[in-house]
Design brief:
heterodimer, A: 194 residues, mainly alpha, 0% strand, B: 101 residues, Helix Hairpins
Chain lengths: 194, 101
């Protein structure tokens, strides 16, 4: 039963992943990607890793909803009313990806996989928590710093102006600041920046 | 359970993502390809952990690290797209080829 479910979820995940690059509508593309991720999360749940599976579900649902907004912002054809083709080097990309799949699949099928060592623990979530809070603490701290750095990088990159833009060209003297804090009309609009 | 269904699915997801990352012009679609590749890695790591050595919880930690990489990739990627679009009105990779060798 579990093997049947594993194959079923796997095939559905791959079909949804293929649809991502076949559909025209950006909304449908985003939700095809979401479906693919959800089937991956179901496979992880099938493997008994309940916490990681649920984290994947929650994270990908939020991620894809945000992605849908970005799709509408940046894509020229969000509704999919006309066929969309934005490709370069399709033949090369197809050759590389088919070659990669054949290589990985050959490894999967030909390698003599080792016998399983040990038995699944009764509560993998508690096991993961204990591990993260003891011997894997440096990993956890690194992850925390990486996420914090990502917050800073994201805010810095997506700000329309820097802290010193209100000084004009030279950062000497006082800024023209009708409203203290640099929120006045000197705020540079995206169009003027180029 | 055998590792084959999980590893073959992971390989197919990785290859599909690679195709997207190489062939799409739009940076947003390119990032979808990258996300699919990371999803393949997540699945392969989880399958290895459960089917080869379920007592070693480092496998779960590896999955957690990969999921974090997925989140950071998405957030920083969209910030880069936003910065690029503001500076140049560009949203395809062909128009941002300044570092091409």
């Amino acid at each position: 039963m579990q093997t049947v479910l594993a194959w079923g979820f796997g095939v559905l995940a791959v079909v949804c992943a293929l649809l991502v690059f076949r559909l025209d509508s950006m909304a449908r593309v985003t939700f095809a990607l979401l479906a693919s991720f959800l089937f991956v999360a179901f496979e992880v749940l099938l493997l008994g890793l309940n916490y990681l599976g649920v984290v994947l579900v929650l994270m990908t649902v939020m991620e894809m909803v945000i992605m849908a907004v970005f799709m509408v912002m940046y894509m020229m054809n969000p509704a999919g009313l006309v066929p969309m083709a934005m490709y370069h080097n399709r033949a090369g990309a197809m050759a590389v990806s088919v070659g990669t799949f054949c290589l990985l699949a050959a490894g999967t099928l030909l390698v003599d996989w080792p016998e399983r060592v040990g038995r699944p623990v009764s509560d993998p979530t508690a096991e993961l928590g204990a591990e993260l809070m003891s011997s894997q603490m440096p990993t956890m701290m690194t992850l925390g710093m990486v996420l914090f750095a990502a917050i800073l990088a994201t805010v810095t990159l997506s700000m329309p102006r820097g802290r010193y833009d209100r000084f004009g060209g030279s950062p000497r003297g006082r800024p023209t600041d009708p409203v203290p804090g640099g929120l006045g009309p000197t705020t540079v609009s995206p169009g003027e920046r180029r | 359970m055998t590792p084959e269904p999980f590893l073959l699915t992971a390989s197919a997801l990785f290859a599909t993502g690679l195709y997207g990352a190489l062939s799409q012009q739009s940076i947003v679609m390119l990032m979808m390809g990258l996300e699919l590749m990371i999803a393949g890695v997540v699945l392969a790591a989880a399958a290895f952990h459960h089917l080869v050595n379920p007592e070693a919880s480092e496998g779960q930690v590896l999955v957690l690290v990969t999921v974090t990489a997925m989140a950071v990739e998405m957030a920083v990627g969209f910030a880069v797209v936003t910065a690029l679009f503001r500076a140049r009105d560009v949203d395809t990779s062909d128009q941002a080829a300044d570092l091409r060798g």
